[in-house]
Write a structure and sequence with these properties.
Layout (H helix, E strand, L loop, with lengths): L17 E5 L4 H12 L3 E6 L7 H11 L5 E5 L5 H11 L3 E4 L8 H4 L1 H22 L3 E7 L23 H20 L3 E6 L1 E3 L8 H11 L2 E4 L6 E2 L1 E3 H13 L23 E6 L5 E2 H12 L4 E4 L15 H7 L7 H16 L2
Parallel strand pairs: 1-2, 1-4, 2-3, 4-5, 5-6, 6-11, 7-10, 8-13
Antiparallel strand pairs: 9-12
Helix pairs in contact: 1-2, 1-8, 3-5, 5-6, 7-9, 9-11
Length: 352
């Protein structure tokens, strides 16, 4: 069991802060912005509104956020550094949460350059903006994909992660490395969070749970890779953004010496920089996840069992001890509860 000494839980932000969130039209960015606005913070979004998936869904998310007078947004690509800089200069953020980027592990096999442009160059532009403004905390989304071919599970933040299997995973690891260098050189407090398999209302149409629900209701077959013998740490989106929200307050500090870092803490010995897993800490078999979806939909799937896909992993599973020690919080929504919430939203939004 991880024990981190001398790390009292941080108090929640007592006064409204100015928080720049990239990717607010996206699945996770939308939910985080909604949570921050509910707490009374001022949020400025930045989103490219790319057509990787249905732009009308992205616009619906932004329309919901714009109902709050404390939310505004700039539409533009991360690669457009002048626009990003103008946005940050006008907003003067206290905190930056960087969630935008080119998503989709599968798509990275077909269009790798899009991932370099957005996830590497775009992330560099965000990190540089954070440095210029001297923000109190920079938080950046990474992914469980950085663990790549690691076989020791549950994955822990202190595990070596040098064997990425896709360009998507490689670009996320590159972002971690760039952020660490900036944290070291410029004393920029930075937290990277590694997401696991996120699901829930307002989800992305390219994600398996979304595609499965749509196909099941239409009577179309669903493709089940590795014959369903896949295991994922399914993380409900509300749990995920609660973890991000609490990590905003857990600002890493450069240690005086490596001996001050407890075993299991990913705090860098040379920078105010930390990596934190956000996951449910429970591995769920894909077939059991599909069973839960069928139960919620009240309809059986037509199952098309297939072999393993290139670059895919048989299992991902998070050790979330560090998140719990830093914030006192542990994601815990069970799969059936989370799927039920997604299905209610899906049926209502798409009138199915």
């Amino acid at each position: 069991m991880l024990r981190i000494r001398d790390l009292p839980l941080p108090p929640l932000l007592s006064t409204p802060r100015r928080i720049l969130v990239t990717g607010t039209a996206g699945f996770i960015g939308f939910h985080l912005a909604r949570l921050l606005l509910a707490e009374g913070h001022v949020v400025h979004g930045f989103d490219g509104m790319t057509d990787y998936y249905d732009v009308s869904l992205k616009r619906a998310r932004h329309a919901a956020l714009l109902q709050n007078q404390h939310f505004a947004v700039t539409e533009g690509l991360l690669e457009d550094q002048p626009l990003l800089d103008r946005t940050a200069d006008a907003f003067q953020p206290d905190i930056i949460v960087h969630l935008a980027g080119q998503a989709g592990v599968r798509h990275s096999l077909e269009a790798p350059r899009a991932y370099i442009d957005s996830n590497v160059m775009g992330s560099f532009n965000v990190i540089e903006a954070a440095r210029r403004h001297g923000v109190a905390h920079l938080l950046i989304a990474s992914s469980s994909s950085v663990y790549g071919a690691n076989t020791s599970m549950p994955f822990a933040e202190v595990d070596k992660a040098d064997t990425q299997l896709t360009i998507y995973g490689a670009t996320k690891k590159a972002g971690e490395s760039m952020a660490h260098a900036y944290a070291h050189l410029h004393d920029l407090p930075t937290t990277m969070f590694r997401f696991f398999t996120v699901y829930g209302p307002w989800g992305r149409p390219d994600l398996a749970f979304f595609k499965f629900a749509d196909a099941i209701l239409d009577g179309r077959p669903i493709d089940i890779y590795n014959h369903g013998q896949m295991y994922r740490d399914f993380t409900y989106v509300d749990d995920l953004v609660r973890g991000i929200r609490l990590l905003i307050d857990a600002v890493p500090q450069r240690p005086d010496s490596p001996e001050d870092i407890a075993a299991g803490d990913s705090l860098s010995p040379v920078a105010p920089y930390r990596i934190v897993n956000i996951g449910n800490s429970t591995k769920v078999r894909l077939l059991d996840f599909i069973d839960a979806l069928e139960t919620s939909l009240g309809q059986k799937a037509v199952r098309n069992y297939m072999g393993m896909q290139p670059g895919d992993l048989e299992a991902t599973w998070a050790n979330a001890d560090l998140l719990r020690q830093l914030t006192g919080y542990q994601p815990q929504t069970d799969v059936q509860t989370g799927i039920d919430a997604f299905v209610r939203w899906f049926r209502d939004y798409y009138d199915k």
